[in-house]
Automatic annotation (TrEMBL), chain A:
Name under which the protein is recorded: Probable spermidine/putrescine ABC transporter, permease protein
Family per similarity comment: Belongs to the binding-protein-dependent transport system permease family. CysTW subfamily.
Matching InterPro entries: Bact_Polyamine_Transport, MetI-like, MetI-like_sf
Membrane topology value: Multi-pass membrane protein
Subcellular location: Cell membrane
Source species: Polymorphum gilvum (strain LMG 25793 / CGMCC 1.9160 / SL003B-26A1)
KW Cell membrane (keyword) present: yes
Superkingdom: Bacteria
Automatic annotation (TrEMBL), chain B:
Any Pfam family: BPD_transp_1
Presence of keyword Repressor: no
Name the UniProt record assigns to this protein: ABC transporter permease protein
Transmembrane segments: 30-56, 89-114, 126-146, 158-178, 185-206, 239-261, 282-306
One GO location term (cellular component): plasma membrane
Species per Swiss-Prot/TrEMBL record: Polymorphum gilvum (strain LMG 25793 / CGMCC 1.9160 / SL003B-26A1)
Membrane disposition: Multi-pass membrane protein
Alphabetically ordered keywords of this record: Cell membrane, Membrane, Transmembrane, Transmembrane helix, Transport
Stretches assigned to the ABC transmembrane type-1 domain: 90-304
Main location: membrane
Any one of the GO BP annotations: transmembrane transport
Length: 273, 316
C-alpha cells in the first residue's frame, strides 16, 4: 500500500533500532568525556570511575599553560573568522548574483582547502613558508585557518543570497538608493543571520583545527595542539579530561546558535529544491 | 521638480559613494571584479601558490650523503614511492579508507533513511542536531573519547567482562593483522575511530538524496504491485546511490590524509599521513613527503572524476 511509505506512517522496528543505535554510537563517546572529567582516578582510564570529584576543575583553572593555549585559540579563531567573513561573503555575492566565465572554478577553489586532506594544506603551507623564509607566528596560523574557514561562510552566504529575491534589490535601486545604501539597508539585513551562522561555524572550525595547525605553528600551542601533546605524552590526565569537556561545551554553543539562526532556511532547503 | 528630474535617465548623483555606485551599476563587470579580487587573490596566492610550491618540490630529490635538497628536476623521489615499504603504506591506507567507507555507508543508511522518510517536526530537528553536533564537535575530543573507550582498563573491556565475553575479545585480538596487544593498538581500534569520526559526513549527503526522492515515485511503485522491499531495492536505493557516493568522497579522502588517529589509536605500522609527517619533520625529506601527498591527490582526482560521472556532485 502507498500509505506504508507515507511520512505519517510508522517505521519498521528494525529500522528504528538501527537508527537509534547509530545515533547512540555518535553520542555516547562524547557523553563519556563528561563522566571522566569528574573521576577521582588519576593514573589510568579506569572504568567505572572509583569516585567522583570536582577538584580537577580547580586544578585546570590554575594551569597557566591551559589559559595560554585557550587565549591563542580564541585570538586565532576570531581573526580567521573576521577574514573569512569578508572573503567568503564577497565571493558568495559574486557567485550568487551573476553568471560569468570561471564561476565553477571559483566555487571549486573555495571548497578545495577542505576537500583535500588537511595534511596536504598543512605541508603545502609549511613548505611555502620555509621557501619564502616567513618565520612561524600568530599570523602563519591565521593564514592557514582563514583559508579553510572561507568555505563555511561562503556556503551559508551563497544559500541565503539565492533565496533573497533579486526584485528587492531592484526595488531599492528604483526608489533611488545607491549601491551602498542598498547594501546597508536591504542586502545586509537579509543575509545577516546567514553571515552570523557562517561566522560561528568558522569560529568552531578554527577553534578545533589541529592538522593544519601542527604545520603552521612554531613553538606556540593552540588548545588542540595542547591536547594533542597531552594525548601523545600525557602529563596530568584529569586536566586533559576537564579541557576536553570544556572544548565540547565551547564548540556546542556556536553550533546550536548557528542552527537556530539558519533553521528556517534549512526547512526550505530540506523540502526538495 | 524640473522636467530633467522626471526623465527616465537619472542625473549623476553627487558624492564619492554615489559615484562609485553609479560606476558599478553601469559596468557590472567592474563590480564583479571588485567582489572577486580579494578572495581570489587570497586563495590563489596563499593556497594554490603553496600547493604548487609543494608539487614542485616533489620533483626535487634529497642527497643521501649530505641530506640537502638538490634543486634539480628528477623523478627519483617518485621512484622511491615504489619501494616495498612505501608501497605497503599506500596499500594499507587505501584499504583502510575503503573499509571505513563501506562500513560508514552501512551504518549511516538507516539513520539517514529514518531521518529523511519518517522523522517529522521535532524528531526531524532532533535527528538533524543529532548528526550536526558530533560532526562539528572537536575532532581531538572525539579521538580522545575513543582512547578512553578502547583502553585496557576502559569501558569496552569492562562491558565484555560483565557479559563474560572476554574470551571473544581475546580471540578477536589474537587474529593476525586486525588484532594486537589491545584494542587501542590494533587496526580494529583505528578502524572504529575512523568510522566514528567520519560517520556524520556520510549521513548528511545520503539524507539529502533520500529527501529528494519524490513520494509519488514510491506510491507509483506500490500501486504497480511492488512490495516495500522491492520498492526499496529498485526505486529508493538507485536514487540514493549518488548520495552514498557523495558521502564516500568525504570518508575516503579524510581517511587517506589523516595522521592523528593512527598515531593515537593504532599500531606502529604507518599510514600515508604519518609518512608525510615523518618525512617532512624529523627526516627533513620534503621531496619525499611532497611525493607522498601527491598519492592521495591523484587517488582523489580519479575518485572525484568517477563520482562526477555518477552524478554524485548534485547530491552534495
Amino acid at each position: 500500500m502507498s500509505a506504508s511509505h507515507d511520512k505519517s506512517s510508522r517505521a519498521p522496528l528494525a529500522l528504528k533500532i538501527a537508527a537509534a543505535a547509530g545515533l547512540l554510537f555518535l553520542h555516547l563517546p562524547i557523553l563519556l568525556i563528561f563522566v571522566y572529567a569528574f573521576t577521582t582516578e588519576e593514573k589510568s582510564y579506569q572504568w567505572p570511575p572509583p569516585d567522583f570529584t570536582a577538584k580537577w576543575l580547580a586544578v585546570t583553572w590554575n594551569r597557566p599553560d591551559v589559559w595560554e593555549a585557550l587565549g591563542l585559540s580564541v585570538r586565532v579563531a576570531t581573526t580567521s573568522t573576521a577574514i573569512a567573513l569578508v572573503l567568503g561573503s564577497l565571493c558568495a555575492a559574486a557567485v550568487a548574483r551573476t553568471k560569468f566565465f570561471g564561476r565553477e572554478t571559483i566555487s571549486l577553489l573555495v571548497i578545495l582547502p577542505i576537500a583535500l586532506p588537511g595534511i596536504i594544506t598543512g605541508i603545502a603551507l609549511r613548505s611555502a613558508f620555509s621557501l619564502a623564509e616567513i618565520p612561524f607566528s600568530f599570523w602563519t596560523i591565521v593564514l592557514g585557518h582563514a583559508t579553510f574557514c572561507v568555505v563555511v561562510v561562503y556556503n551559508n552566504a551563497v544559500a541565503r543570497f539565492r533565496r533573497t529575491s533579486g526584485s528587492l534589490i531592484e526595488a531599492s535601486m528604483d526608489l533611488g538608493a545607491n549601491g551602498f545604501q542598498t547594501l546597508r539597508h536591504v542586502i545586509l539585513p537579509n543575509i545577516g543571520t546567514a553571515l552570523l551562522a557562517g561566522g560561528m561555524l568558522a569560529f568552531a572550525l578554527s577553534f578545533d583545527e589541529v592538522i593544519v595547525t601542527t604545520f603552521t605553528a612554531g613553538q606556540q600551542a593552540t588548545l588542540p595542539i595542547w591536547m594533542l601533546e597531552e594525548l601523545v605524552r600525557p602529563r596530568q590526565r584529569p586536566v586533559t579530561n576537564v579541557v576536553a569537556m570544556v572544548v565540547v561545551i565551547v564548540t556546542f554553543l556556536p553550533i546550536l546558535a548557528a542552527y537556530y539562526l539558519t533553521r528556517d532556511g534549512d526547512r526550505i532547503a530540506g523540502h526538495g529544491k | 521638480m524640473t522636467a530633467a528630474d522626471a526623465a527616465a535617465i537619472l542625473p549623476r548623483r553627487a558624492g564619492l559613494a554615489a559615484a562609485a555606485s553609479d560606476a558599478f551599476w553601469r559596468r557590472p563587470t567592474l563590480l564583479l571584479l571588485t567582489l572577486l579580487l580579494p578572495p581570489v587573490l587570497w586563495l590563489g596566492i596563499i593556497y594554490l601558490g603553496s600547493l604548487f610550491a609543494l608539487l614542485a618540490q616533489s620533483f626535487f630529490s634529497i642527497d643521501e650523503f649530505s641530506g640537502l635538497i638538490q634543486y634539480e628536476f628528477t623523478l627519483k623521489t617518485y621512484g622511491e614511492l615504489l619501494h616495498p615499504a612505501n608501497l605497503d603504506i599506500i596499500v594499507r591506507t587505501v584499504l583502510m579508507a575503503a573499509v571505513v567507507t563501506l562500513a560508514a555507508a552501512v551504518v549511516a543508511f538507516p539513520i539517514a533513511y529514518y531521518a529523511a522518510r519518517y522523522a517529522t517536526g521535532r524528531w526531524k530537528a532532533l535527528f538533524y542536531l543529532g548528526v550536526m553536533l558530533p560532526l562539528w564537535s572537536s575532532y581531538l575530543v572525539k579521538v580522545y573519547a575513543w582512547k578512553l573507550i578502547l583502553a585496557k582498563e576502559g569501558i569496552l573491556n569492562w562491558i565484555f567482562a560483565k557479559l563474560h565475553l572476554t574470551w571473544l575479545l581475546e580471540a578477536w585480538l589474537a587474529l593476525p593483522l586486525i588484532g594486537g596487544n589491545s584494542l587501542s593498538v590494533s587496526y580494529t581500534g583505528t578502524f572504529l575511530v575512523f568510522l566514528y569520526v567520519w560517520l556524520p559526513f556520510m549521513i548528511l549527503p545520503i539524507q539529502a538524496s533520500l529527501e529528494r526522492v519524490p513520494g509519488s515515485l514510491i506510491e507509483a511503485s506500490a500501486d504497480l504491485g511492488g512490495a516495500p522491499r522491492q520498492t526499496f531495492r529498485h526505486v529508493i536505493l538507485p536514487l540514493a546511490l549518488p548520495g552514498v557516493v557523495a558521502g564516500s568522497i568525504f570518508t575516503f579522502s579524510l581517511t587517506l590524509g589523516d595522521y592523528i588517529i593512527p598515531q593515537i589509536v593504532g599500531s606502529s605500522r604507518l599510514f600515508i599521513g604519518q609518512a608525510v609527517y615523518a618525512h617532512q619533520g624529523i627526516a627533513g625529506n620534503i621531496p619525499l613527503a611532497a611525493a607522498f601527498t601527491v598519492v592521495p591527490i591523484i587517488i582523489m582526482g580519479f575518485y572525484l572524476w568517477g563520482a562526477k560521472r555518477m552524478g554524485a556532485f548534485n547530491a552534495l
